[in-house]
């Protein structure tokens, strides 16, 4: 059994692409957890999507053994975390299992929006922060200037900041030595009743739910009876172990350690992230604090292209929700698409990743409806409704107040791009709450923005306008009253509920026109004219027509009376009119995704 004083639990936090996973690779190499022969780039990012996109999506725990300069051998429990704003919940869960955090900052790009957000998260958790400037080997690196930024923005002493290159390994051992010296050992009582915090889980088809835990008090061992404090369900532990980085079985996990357990848990609802595991025989009196409930930012409908796969989709969503606690779903129906599920996500990237995982891991073909944010309605009867879909919006005469979510946005960018960004923020109905020059080159903007205006393409526009140097972080603020309307799309006179969106009244005509134009190019031509209309209530505000395919019925008329040709054309016209009455238009998946790519 490892004494408490020899255990260090820490995570690596940073903005996207600042080198967290590469630094984790060097830690694994230096501690000889992984041999040079087995080493690959970003070893802990083992999901196909992570390797393809070059980002971390899921937190990854790993145990390392490190012999420090003082001759002592320490057990280091590292958690590698994602950097994108959509996966901030993964970061906060990782922090709950740690006493310290290595804050990585790119020595070329400097402090960015997510760096600030992660620092504040770590401070709220009372973690010991170790600032590290990475990528000092780059020709464009400015470690001294960036160190001053870290001092001013994050309130850290220059002497505390370490320099390293995760790529070459320079300065990496010094980081591990500092972790051993400064990160406090975990507190916990081995003789107290078992209390273990669930901070991640996933479903294994052979072993049931695999649960990642941080043991706070007592110990976990094979054969012991455990109880989930949220549900009261009891299980017998079949296996305990840890990741190094592959799963390694062990006899027990003691207080302060991080590892996994399996107990033939078939029902995925029984392993709730943030729940406390205790002993079924001598249980703890009170559970651990757990996590603050996550607020979903974006909602969309997921429907199987083959309606017979509805049951399979439900099973797949249950298993995905076990692995991703920030994801939620509930059944819904659509006139256009049949039976499906309304799903909640933290952002558009989170939505894309979830859809791709469902298609790859569970072999499903899905249609995704247009994403939207959650609105709040007060009806004339005094009832308050939370809406996750435009279809739930009551008729206009029943709406007293319609509110939309606002977020507190933090934007860090070079000052030379202030003009275009001010215009972009003004176009998106933003309200400035702060402006601060970090140095001569970098400016920090604080804005209150409607979530509906930034959730689609705002981040892409920000990046392109600032040539990749602008960064964005946001958190939910409150609901505010706005002049919003439901924009409906009609194809051939029939409403397509899956394409409805809620927009600000000032932008409704522009948005409706763009949607109709976009869909005209995407809906295949039929043997009859297809009308595409955008409407607000009973009023049509935009229209486009997909022209019919036309057969030349007069091709065989060589001369003769003109009335013969007219008769054939009239017969064709009448046939098209009848066909339009009974004909149905198949709307391709690309049309549903068109709303995503429409410029605001």
- Under CATH at level 1, the class of the largest domain stands as Alpha Beta
> How many separate domains make up the residues?
5
CATH architecture type of the largest domain: 3-Layer(aba) Sandwich
* SS strand fraction: 25-35%
Provide mean pLDDT, rounded. Answer: 82
Q: What is the CATH superfamily of the largest domain?
A: P-loop containing nucleotide triphosphate hydrolases
- Structural class, please? alpha+beta
* Rg on CA atoms, Å: 28 Å
Biggest beta-sheet profile? 8 strands, antiparallel
CATH topology of the largest domain: Rossmann fold
Report the strand count.
31
**What is the share of helical residues?**
25-40%
Strand order of the largest sheet: 11-10-16-7-8-15-12-13
Any low-confidence stretches, pLDDT <50, length ≥5?
A: 579-583, 596-600
User: With helices defined by DSSP (H or I, 4 residues minimum), what is the helix count?
Assistant: 14
Overall 3D form: globular
First-last Cα distance: 60 Å
Descriptive report:
The chain has 600 residues and is α+β, with helices and mostly antiparallel strands. The protein folds into five domains: 4-182, Rossmann fold (3-Layer(aba) Sandwich); 195-279, Translation factors (Elongation Factor Tu (Ef-tu), domain 3); 298-371, Alpha-Beta Plaits, CATH 3.30.70; 376-481, Alpha-Beta Plaits (2-Layer Sandwich), CATH 3.30.70; 485-597, 2-Layer Sandwich (Alpha-Beta Plaits). It is 26% helix and 33% strand. It contains 14 helices and 31 strands. The chain has an eight-stranded antiparallel β-sheet. Mean pLDDT is 82; it is low at 579-583 and 596-600.
